[in-house]
């Protein structure tokens, strides 16, 4: 697989190089030079998730890794299912939250951990990442106990649901967590600054593990196929995906699935009030506002870092921008959508509810709508219970962490403070 830095086309990388580096020169994102379509879509859609995913990933990655290695990654990473739940007449939820940390980020996080473990061949690596919620947990779990890989996770203090936070701050061992007194965009900026700092990048063998890592995106492509495979054959070319979006990795993966030949009709980019992309799609102007805090906090991102990849697919003529509409949903309508879903017998959380709201508004009669269920409702227990006025049952994974002590450190929003902290805990 040939990847090109979107900021500097002379900076190219193989799949393994791009996974190992995360970001390219000038903080540029790597993106495949080309995406060749698959010619056996029907056959693939009849296979089970793991077997199909091995084919898709082998096709994308190419000869760089043998099929046996890719199949080992997939079998270690994709150990849970992604069922399509029927919600109303022509609307379904793709439930991506049946992994160990109850969020879709387990797919990408676990696949990436397998790739990095393979590539690092036992040499020391530090994963530095910022999380607005679920990435942290997924990355922490995926790497926990891999000896040569240390993980540092930054998160905005007090802006993540308490149970969600416990899922990654309680692990310890090679997993170091830091609460930063700032919002997610500031955490993301600290990570970028660290990658620009040669002392830190070289000295600590830095690697990023947020949604910019190409391995995560490739893994996420696989569940779009899984969704379509569960739709009756005669409806498979009518599917509209509504994607609850923050950093836009999920949507990027969906568009790659379409480039591979999956017959997706169109996409809806659903956001909360952090609506940079829906406004951009309407006006053509990229004008990020201050990030605002919402109950769908994993999407509280006003400068989505995967957007340049989507823009590149549009600019290269690979993806028709008319097949993407954006819509932002405010807090009141988010809550309304959660209540509506509950009245249909489907208890959901704010992120998926936003995607549902956009889908139910925009879906046309002969279309089949799928919104991505990105997290288990129990991860947002307080919000869900408040909005629905009824208690929800916690899955065992959350019961287990809820009584444990968080092991995070706390830092002000200062790069120097972070740097000193990292050297003190990692050297
Ligand atoms: C991360 C996250 C999102 C946003 O996904 P992106 O790929 O960043 O757009 C949506 N919902 C939940 C629950 C998440 O954790």
Instruction: Provide the helix percentage.
Output: 40-55%
CATH topology of one domain: Rossmann fold
Q: Distance N terminus to C terminus?
A: 35 Å
Average pLDDT metric: 95
Gross CATH architecture of one domain: 3-Layer(aba) Sandwich
Précis, in short:
The chain has helices spanning 15-21, 41-45, 49-61, 67-77, 105-120, 134-143, 162-169, 184-196, 198-203, 214-229, 249-259, 276-283, 307-315, 331-343, 350-362, 381-388, 396-402, 415-426, and strands spanning 2-5, 8-14, 30-32, 84-88, 91-95, 125-130, 149-156, 175-180, 206-208, 239-244, 264-271, 324-328, 368-373, 409-411. It is an alpha/beta fold. Helix 11 (249-259) links the parallel strand 10 (239-244) and strand 11.
Structure description:
The chain is α/β, with parallel strands linked by helices and 427 residues long. The protein has a domain at 81-103 and 214-388: Rossmann fold. 44% of the residues lie in helices and 18% in strands. The strands form 3 sheets. The protein has a 6-stranded mixed sheet, sandwiched between helices. A hairpin with a 2-residue loop joins strand 4 and strand 5. The longest helix is centred in the N-terminal third of the chain and has 16 residues, at 105-120. It is globular and about 60 Å long. Pyridoxal-5'-phosphate binds at residues 103, 105, 133-134, 211, 244-250, 298-299, 351, 374-375.
């Amino acid at each position: 697989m040939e990847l090109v830095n979107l900021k500097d086309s002379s900076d190219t990388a193989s799949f393994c190089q791009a996974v190992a580096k995360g970001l390219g020169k000038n903080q540029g994102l790597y993106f495949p030079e080309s995406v060749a379509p698959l010619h056996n879509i029907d056959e693939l859609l009849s296979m089970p998730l793991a077997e199909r995913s091995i084919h898709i990933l082998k096709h994308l990655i190419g000869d760089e890794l043998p099929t046996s290695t890719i199949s080992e990654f997939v079998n270690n990473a994709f150990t849970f299912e992604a069922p399509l739940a029927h919600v109303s007449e022509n609307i379904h939820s793709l439930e991506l939250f049946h992994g160990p940390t109850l969020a879709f980020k387990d797919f990408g996080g676990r696949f990436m951990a397998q790739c990095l473990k393979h590539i690092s061949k036992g040499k020391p690596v530090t994963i530095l990442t910022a999380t607005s919620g679920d990435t942290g947990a997924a990355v922490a779990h995926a790497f926990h106990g891999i000896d040569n890989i240390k993980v540092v996770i930054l998160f905005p203090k007090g802006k993540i649901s308490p149970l969600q936070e416990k899922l990654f701050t309680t692990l310890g061992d090679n997993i170091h967590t830091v609460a930063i007194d700032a919002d997610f965009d500031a955490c993301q900026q600290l990570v970028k600054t660290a990658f620009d700092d040669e002392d830190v990048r070289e000295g600590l063998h830095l690697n990023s593990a947020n949604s910019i890592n190409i391995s995560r995106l490739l893994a996420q492509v696989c569940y779009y196929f899984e969704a379509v495979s569960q739709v009756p054959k005669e409806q498979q070319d009518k599917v509209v995906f509504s994607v609850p979006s923050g950093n836009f990795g999920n949507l990027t993966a969906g568009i790659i699935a379409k480039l591979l030949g999956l017959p997706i009709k169109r996409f809806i980019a659903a956001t909360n009030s952090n609506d940079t992309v829906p406004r951009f799609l309407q006006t053509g102007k990229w004008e990020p506002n201050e990030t605002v805090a919402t109950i769908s906090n994993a999407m509280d991102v006003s400068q989505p870092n995967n957007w340049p990849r989507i823009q590149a697919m549009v600019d290269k003529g690979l993806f028709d921008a008319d097949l993407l509409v954006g819509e932002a949903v405010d807090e009141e309508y988010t809550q309304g959508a959660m209540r509506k879903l509950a009245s249909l017998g489907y208890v959901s959380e704010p992120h998926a509810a936003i995607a549902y709201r956009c889908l139910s508004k925009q879906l046309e009669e002969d279309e089949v709508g799928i919104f991505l269920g990105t997290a288990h409702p129990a991860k947002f227990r307080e919000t869900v219970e408040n909005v629905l006025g009824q208690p929800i049952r916690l899955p065992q994974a959350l019961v287990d962490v809820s009584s444990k002590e968080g092991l995070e450190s706390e830092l002000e929003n200062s790069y120097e403070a972070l740097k000193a902290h990292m050297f003190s805990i990692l050297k």
